[in-house]
Fold:
Amino acid sequence: MKLTKNLKLAVVALAASCLTLAASAQDNTLLGAGSTFINPLFSKMFSQYTASKVNYQSIGSGAGIAQLTAKTVDFGDSDAPLNADQTAKMSAEVLHIPMTSGAVVVTYNIPGVTKALNLTGKDLADIYLGKVTKWNSPEIAATNKGVSLPDLSIVVIHRSDGSGTSFIFTDYLSKVNPEWASKVSKGSAVNWPAGLGGKGNEGVAGLVKQTPGAIGYNELAYAIQNKMDYANIQNKSGKFITATIAATTAASNITIPADSKVSITNTDNPAGYPISSFTWALIYKEQNYGGRSKARATELLKLLWWNIHQGQADCEPLNYAPLSKSAVKVAETILKSATFDGKAIL
Amino acid sequence: MENKRLELSDSQLKWETIFKWFLIAMSILLLLIVLGVLITLIMESMPSIKSLGISYLWGKVWDPVQNIYGAYPFLIGTLLTSFIALIISVPFSYAIAIYLGEYNPKGWLSDTLKNAVELIAAVPSIIYGFWGIFVLVPLVRTLEMKIGVMPLGAGVFTASLVLAVMIIPYGASLGITLIRMVPSPLKEGAYALGATRYEVIRSVIMPYTRTGLFAGVLLSLGRALGETMAVTMLIGNTSAIASTFKELVFGPGNTMASVIANEFAEADHTMYLSALIELGLVLFLVTVVINLIGKRIITRFTNN
Structure:
C-alpha cells in the first residue's frame, strides 16, 4: 500500500514538473536550433547566462535553418551562410551574426611519422582528387624535408554525412586548387572523387585511426580532445601554420564585410590558419513576426549581445576560437540593425 | 436450436457491431498509412522527377553541388549488399532451423540456442555497426591484403557480413517453427522405411517446408534492403562505382538507405531534398517488387 502511495506521489510530482517545464517553455525560454559544431560552446554559454533561459537543439545547420524558416525557433545557427535557395525560402531578411570561429584540421595516420607534416593547400586538394596517391610522392616530400615518408598508399577519408565541416574544407580546397573548384567545388556534401566516407567527426576519426596511410579532416576541438596528429597547412602568405586557437582567431582578424557573410578560409592574415570559418547565429531582421512580444525580441538580442562579448570567455577552454576584434565590431553593428516594428531594439 | 441471434440483447448486438467496425477501421487505417507514405514520397519527389526524368535511375553521378543526381550506384549497392548477405546467411539460418527443429527440438541446449538466435534480432543495429568497425573491419583488412585489393577494411563485403548476421534470425525462427510442425506420421513413415536422418530431412521435411523456408528468406531480404545504420557505418559511403568485380565486392560503396540517412539533415536546396526523397521512393518500390516476386514464387510452389 505504502509503495503504491509513494508511486502515486512520484507520478503526480513528475506530471507537475512536466507541466511547469512546458509552461516555462511557452513563457520565456528562448528557442534555438542548428549547428552541432557549436553545441558544446552554446551549452556552456547558456548555462552561465542568467537573464533568460535558452533551449538549443543541435540538429545540424541545415535543419536549424529549416526551423528558422518555419519560425518555430527564435534563432538558428549555421556553419555556412545561407545559400540562394535558403534565402529565397525565408519570408523576410535574415541577419548573420558571427558567434565564434572554428578550424578544420587535417588528421592522418602514417606509421613511423611522429613529426607534424607540412602540407600545401594545392597538394591537399590533389590528394583528395586522387591524383597524389602515395605518402612518399615528390609533392609531399618537397615540403617535408628530413621526414622519412613511407611507400604507403594514401587512403582518403571524408565525411559521408552533409556537414558544415565538409563545407569549410571544400571551400578552402576550391580556393587553392582550380581543378578542385571546377570538378568538385564546395558544399556540405559534394561528389567526392576519391576515398571512403565516415559518418560524423567520430566516423572520420575512427577510420583515420584504424587505417594505416589514412588522411582525414576533423574539427580542431575534436582532434585535440582525441589526441590526433594533424598537419601544418600552408597559408596564403606561404607560411606553414599549426592549427591553434590563436591562429584561428587571427584568420578572422581581417576586414569583414558589413553583413559578416564572409568565408575566412585561405585568409589574408599572415598569422592565420587557412582552414577556418565563422559559425553564425541567424535571426530575422524584423523581430515582430508571428505574434512575438517586444520583450522576447529584446531578450533574444541581449542574449546574442552577451554571446559576442562576455560569452567569448567560454571559447578557449572548449577549444573554440574567440571572435577577432574586427568580427566583434561587425557583429555589434549587425545586432543594432535588428528592429521591432521598424524601430531599433538595442 | 432456433435462430440464436434472436436471443441476443440489444447491448450485445451493439457491441458486436462496434467491434466489427473497429476491426475494419483499423485494417483500413493501415492501408491508408501505406498509401499515404507512397503519395507523400511521390509528391515530394516531383521536382526531381520532373527535372531528371527516368534517367535518374541509371545516372551514375551524384553531385549535390551541381544538382546532378543518379541513383544507379546506390541501387547497385543496396542490391549487392542485400544479396551477398542473403547468400552468406541462408546456410546458417537453414542449418540452425534444421538442428533446432529436427535434431534437438527440446531441452535446455535447444532453448538456449533458440533464445540466442532470437536475441540476435533484438540487438540494435548501431551495436552491430560498432562491432563491425572494431572487429570485422580489421579482419577484412587482413583478408584484403592477402588477396591483393586495396586494404580499406570498410566496404560492401564488410557491410554484407554484418547484414548476414543481422538477418539470420528472420529465416531461422520461421524455419524452426515450420520444421517442428511437420506431421510426425510422415517422418515416422520414412524412418520405418529405413531412411536415415539426412534422407528424412532431404525428402520429407524439406519438400514439406520449402515454401515457408523461402518466405523466411524473403523476410530476411526485406530486412537487409532497408537496414541503414550498421551498413552506413561500414560500407565506406562512396558514390563512385568500381570497375572490376573484385573492387565492386571488396571496395567501398553506398546504399540508398545510407545515403538518405547521411545527407537528409543537411540537404540545403529543394532539388537535393527532392532527389533524396525520390531515392526513398525507389527503395520503397524495390522492396515492393521483391516482395511481389517472392509472393508469386510462394504461390507457385504451394500450388504444386
